[in-house]
């Protein structure tokens, strides 16, 4: 357990540092929107592209891993559709529930994978992201716009998503066998190395810690389902498919992460319940400091 804490505490320390830097106004408040934009549109896509461009796409376990990703995602999606039918959630709220349960904090996930599993884990994690990022974003956009149908604005939001574009580019480079020539690999690697620490600082800075708003039943239920039930479903699926230990651990890990900070931006853009989304991001990130070590310890 101590080994896990040694690997995880620096990551949560960066999140806390981001919150303290924002609260103490050590940096100009205008710094954070620019930093988030730089990371979302440049640095983090570079990390995904770099990881996918060198990922072992000839790994014989990849079809089973893909099946595990889509089966876990599908089971959660069916459960959400049943819940919406029962509670008659409008799209503004349904979209928040979907993002709270299906989306994940990729910055934190890759930082944990890098700390615990090294380059081999990062390469497989990039494959999982290549499957999960487009799928989770597609379902989130559909959920937020389901009252008016999947329209041109929804389609553009997906096509222009820098994470999806980076996944497509990285996989294409990998499959083509061209690689990143003339030092481009070094450039992309340098950009990628800046993404995770800056991303964790931005996650901390974006947290809105208002205690009285973090105890609502919707927040508690959604957080419990994401941080406790989803790892159980992912573990059951991975055992049923007989995934090897590394693939199993990564699958469970990514379904144990708190929801993505960028979920707030998407919710706000598509007229969802952005206040609920912001509170959900804050609560899940706080609770993950306790739930993630437990999940990883159970995985061994």
Annotation keywords:
single chain, mainly alpha, 0% strand, Na+/H+ antiporter like fold, transmembrane helix, 300 residues
Biggest β-sheet: count, sense, barrel?
Answer: none
State the helicity in percent bands: over 70%
Q: What is the count of distinct domains? A: 1
| Tally of helical runs | 12
Q: Kindly estimate the percentage of residues that lie in beta strands according to DSSP.
A: under 5%
Main location: membrane
Subcellular location: Cell membrane
Protein name: Permease
Membrane topology: Multi-pass membrane protein
Please explain how this structure is put together.
The protein has 300 residues and is mainly α. Helix content is 78%, strand content 0%. The protein has one domain (2-299): Na+/H+ antiporter like fold (Up-down Bundle), CATH 1.20.1530. It contains 12 helices and no strands. Helix 4 runs parallel beside helix 12. The longest helix has 39 residues, at 106-144. The model has no long low-confidence stretch (mean pLDDT 83). Keywords: Cell membrane, Membrane, Transmembrane, Transmembrane helix, Transport. It is found in: Cell membrane.
């Amino acid at each position: 357990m101590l080994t896990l804490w040694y690997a995880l505490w620096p990551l949560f320390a960066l999140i806390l540092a981001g919150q303290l830097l924002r609260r103490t106004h050590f940096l100009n408040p205008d710094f954070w929107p620019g930093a988030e934009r730089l990371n979302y549109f440049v640095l983090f896509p570079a990390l995904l592209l770099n990881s996918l461009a060198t990922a072992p796409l000839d790994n014989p376990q990849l079809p089973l891993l893909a099946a595990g990703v889509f089966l876990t995602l599908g089971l959660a999606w069916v459960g959400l559709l049943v819940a919406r039918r029962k509670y008659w959630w409008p799209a503004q709220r349904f979209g928040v529930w979907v993002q709270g349960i299906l989306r994940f904090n990729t910055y934190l996930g890759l930082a944990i994978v890098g700390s615990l599993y090294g380059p081999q884990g990062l390469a497989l994690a990039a494959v999982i992201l290549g499957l999960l990022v487009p799928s989770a974003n597609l379902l989130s956009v559909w959920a937020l716009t389901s009252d008016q149908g999947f329209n041109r604005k929804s389609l553009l939001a997906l096509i222009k998503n820098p994470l999806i574009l980076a996944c497509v580019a990285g996989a294409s480079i990998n499959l083509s066998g061209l690689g990143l020539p003339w030092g481009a690999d070094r450039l992309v690697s340098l950009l990628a190395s800046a993404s995770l620490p800056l991303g964790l600082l931005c996650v901390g800075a974006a947290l809105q810690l208002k205690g009285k708003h973090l105890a609502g039943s919707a927040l508690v239920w959604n957080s419990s389902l994401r941080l406790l039930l989803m790892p159980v479903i992912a573990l059951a699926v991975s055992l049923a498919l007989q995934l090897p230990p590394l693939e199993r651990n990564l699958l469970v890990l990514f379904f144990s992460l708190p929801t993505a900070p960028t979920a707030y931006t998407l919710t706000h853009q598509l007229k969802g319940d952005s206040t609920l989304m912001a509170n959900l991001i804050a609560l899940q990130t706080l609770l993950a400091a306790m739930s993630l070590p437990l999940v990883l310890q159970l995985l061994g």
